[in-house]
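Shipment paperwork, digital attachment
Item: protein structure file
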Amino acid sequence: MGQSPTNADDSRSSRVPLAEGFDAPSEQDWLDLVSKVLKGGDISRLESTTPGGLRIEPLYNPANTSEVGLGTPGEAPFVRGSMPIEGEAPTWSLRVEVPVADASTPSELNDLVLEALERGATEVVIAADDALLGGVPLDAAALDGAALDRALSGVMVDIAPLHLRPGGDFVQMAASLAGVWSRSEVDQGALLGGFGADPIAVLARTGSLGQGIETALTQLGDLARRTAEATPGVRSITVSSVPFVNAGADEVQELAIALSVGAAYLRACAAAGLSVNDACHQIEFTLTTDADVFTGVAKLRAARRLWNTVATACGATGRSGAARINVRTSETMMTERDPWVNLLRVTAASLAAALGGADSLTTLPYDLRLGEHGELGRRMARNTHLLLAEESNLARVVDPMGGSWYIETLTNELADSAWSRFQQIEAEGGMPAVLLDGSVAEQIADGAVRRFAKVATRRTPITGVSEFPNLDEPAPGRAETNSSVDTTSGSIGSDNAGTHIEPLPRIHWSQDFETLRDRSDRHQECTGNRPTVFLVNLGSVARHTARATFASNFYAAGGISSTTSTLGSTTGFEDTETAVSDAKSSGADLFCICSSDEIYAERAIEVATALVGAGLGPVHLAGRPGDLEDPLRGAGIGEFIYVGADVLSILTLVHDQVGTPELEG
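Attachment content:
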């Protein structure tokens, strides 16, 4: 066996000098190599943008990295984390939501709470806000002190922090939980958790706030003051961006809205007599992450810097400006179709939360959008979290993405953009004002339209839905949606009548493609078959396979199955007569010509003319038409399918032409 070096200098000198003898590469060397790969194309082709419009460069270096002081972990401006590091880096908490709507009795709710705690959760949220919408077995209003006692029986409240997501009647729910704590005989100063008061989020999500927004803010301030006095380890206020993100808010809008809501709650606390420092300690943020890992990391780092700026401007001192951030993986990325892919999405979102320095994390179950929410979904959500926390060693490194030129630049640009948007909201009267006048909803909707357009063209692909769908997958059971929310307009701002606005929508990026899949399922129920496209493959396998494969995947995104004859799949059609004969005998609803550009120039017009002449159609062609577009359209080609085409519009048109039934609601 070899001997180990006896000191650090010997260790360094024993390393193999792998880099010696090579010239240090320059940025231009890199650009030249990339240009070769792009065959002389402009490197700008590699640029992209985030949903919020921030540009992502293909290469980052010190020259294009903005310099902003990062500070040290646990110190202002808290970009690198909210907590100072002493010894081992702290692991984020595993926070599990237990929806009241999933239980019919307090005892069943207790079973769900204990299941979560016994199987890895370190914090529990009693999510009662959905139950306030009505139509569920257990009414949240029934969760008085006695019922909540039963629901939390066996929970060691001095070890497991308890949180509420109470909906509009947060005062009553807070009193119920405070009663549970007081009857536990645990030192009130040792209690951890939160009451979750967030009336602005409730109003945004449901469109209604019974006590009125001004009264609700007054109640929030009073609750914060009482909580600070009685249970200083408990946070009474949550600033949740979830309803806004569920409506389509991008990362810039999310941070700006959260800042403005936080500022409104600080004002309410000040009006109730709390100092700025005490008010800051009463507030917790709930932000979201999705499968875009790097943007998620930058968002959390930027959020801490921005909140410290707000808090400091209001007079906070010391570590009072350190935001406590709970991350909840995004609902908008979750799909009904191929729900197993949601496991990967949630893993990516959880990774972003961990790398971004979340204080706690809620991982949503893969079956969130299915009709049956099972134990397997809850278990996989917890275990995804536990694997990252316990087996990946992510928590052993403080701010692991810090120092990356890309991440630092993205963090700074996101902070700057969100701050500008925040200033606009404040100049217009703050979040209550822009929520009541509908302007924030319009801005979110405008951004969502742009993002849906990218989904429609598959520039933002959705695996298992718009890309690589599984048509043999059974139709999923759909989670019931509540239709009893009061969306009628009322006397806005009137405490007597409450506050009523149009609630923000609840969207999913996959919803339009999934609607087409639903139409396909309905067509199959009515006719025994899905809408079908016959691939008219011209020329040899080498000539037609690439575009035939593309076409099959393209149509499958809309629930349209692909077929061709044995001749068409093995050798391709060499003569027009055979192609038309086999296409006609297939009984297909749609026909797509697939081959190379060279063969299109020789035969596409002839084949299209023959297909249309035989009474077959619609007829499509796989690939960009180029100079042949006019003669091909004249021959009867209705649509051209290619990378970047509006997939959703084309497939919707096909369904309309085929006559698949539209779905109600």
